[in-house]
Amino acid sequence: MRIFFEILVIELVEAEILNASLTVIGGGPGGYSAALRGIQLGLDVILIEKEKLGGNCLNIGCIPSKLLLHTTGILQHVHNAVKTGTLIGNVQLDWNCLLTQKNVLINDMITELEKLLLRNGVKVVHGHGRLSSVGIVEVDRKKGPLEINSNAIIIATGSRPSIPLIHGAMHAVTTTNLPDLSRVPASMVIIGGGPEGVEFATIFHDMGIDVTVLEETDHLLPIEDEDVSRVLEKVLRESGVNVFVKTKVSGISESDGVKTVSIQQNEVKNKLKANVVVLAMGRKSNIENIGLEALSVATKNGLIQVDRHMATNIKGIFAVGDVTGGGLAHVASNQGTVAAENAFGLGSVYEGLTIPRCLYSRPQVAAVGLNEKTAKSKGFDVKIGKSKMNKNVKALLIGETQGFTKIIVESISRKILGVNIVGEHASEIISEASLAIRLGATVDDIAGTVHPYPTFSEALTEAAQDAEIN
To answer: pLDDT tens-digit profile of 133-189?
Structure first.
């Protein structure tokens, strides 16, 4: 009887086994894009997700933050119109209603994503997936272990907020928590002047909150063109956001619900008080406990190393998105598509230089290609063309005249190396520049392209014409 019982227990815990042409670990933009592309190519695809489909972007990142930016942007436009007298009345934001709208939107989008994957034949498995050996993925599920034998594997496990080694960091929240604050605070200190920090500074300042941004380097948005950083910093300061650069944070404390942030600028120490302190100091890739060590998958500085085909050093294993340093949802999606095509054997290449980077602050920031400093460091002889938004008729019409368009051109070939835009709807305009760089277009091609009048896109033509003259 005891022997029979032992055999029965072994059978109950024995892993279920499935076979697939392609297994994707992670259901964010990189993962589900890879899965859908794999299906289009005729592969048998299994997608593993341990939490909710859609990843950080849909659930806690770009979708909720962009909804907040859109709504607070409308609020700010209305307030500006009231100041000028063209609108009369008092408009207020209902934070709880906005949170409800956010949650409904996210749930609807998750449902549509689930339907899309099901309709296309992607098998979705909920659980924690890890590499076991070459071609084998183990999945821990509530209903028992699963083993998947796969011809190719794509790792798309995403990232999480990076928690700095600051004394008292537990008294702060991350940007993940911000869209779900139970109530709107009166004041906020944001540690980190990168994209997340600047976007949330825009959101909460437009809601009438006293916002302070702390950045350790000498300017906001450290990886972007210095002209962009200077203008955006000037705009934020003029709007009332407190901006501190070259500032280190040594500690965070709390007393009676009030947080105190200890800072140092050069040799000067100071203390700032706020109701909420936010950590916006980048993200850390989720590469732990997914079996990388077992297969000796190469990593460096916390990122999985891949080539232009999104392939790792282990044949048949690819990685995309934040685990490779992708950082943006549309980057992850493109990388996922490339990885799936290479799992099928197409030899596709990821072209990161032509993918735009967008910041949805107010004004927006959009960039593609090389910035001026990087282009010069690579040995290019460059020409610069600029067009200020205060000369753009559409910008004048709606009263959004802050910003500029800047084109970096290689002098001899006249090809476009990079474009930077600061201004309203910059994220909608930048794709033209992205296509121009992808196709090897010259500054003359942009200068000769007729844009509709009056539009913000005319700034591209004007910047190109300026580069022709200079």
So the answer is: 999 999 999 989 999 999 999 999 999 999 999 999 999 999 998 888 888 999 999
Instruction: Identify the CATH number of the domain defined by range 15-58+99-160+284-350.
Output: 3.50.50.60
**Residues facing residue 285 across a β-bridge:** 159
Residue spans in the chain of domains classed CATH 3.30.390.30: 354-469
Other CB atoms within a 10 A radius of the CB of residue 113 amount to: 18
How far from chain centre, in Å, is Cα 28?
12
CATH code of 169-281, in short, is: 3.50.50.60
Q: What is the mean pLDDT of residues 453-469?
A: 94
**H/E stretch holding 419:** strand 416-423
From CA 197, how far away is CA 214, in angstroms rounded? Answer: 9
**Residues 16 and 145 sit within 8 Å (Cβ to Cβ):** yes
Interacting residues of 376 by C-beta distance below 8 A, sequence separation 6+: 382
Total length of the chain? 470
Give CA–CA dist 283/323, Å, rounded: 10
- The alpha carbon torsion through 78, 82, 84, 85 (nearest 10 deg) reads 130
The secondary structure of 47-58 as a DSSP string is EEESS-TTHHHH
Q: Give phi and psi for 310, each to the nearest 5.
A: 65, 25
Q: H or E stretch including 336?
A: helix 329-343
Q: What angle do CA 65, 70, 72 make, to 5 degrees?
A: 90
CATH number of 354-469: 3.30.390.30
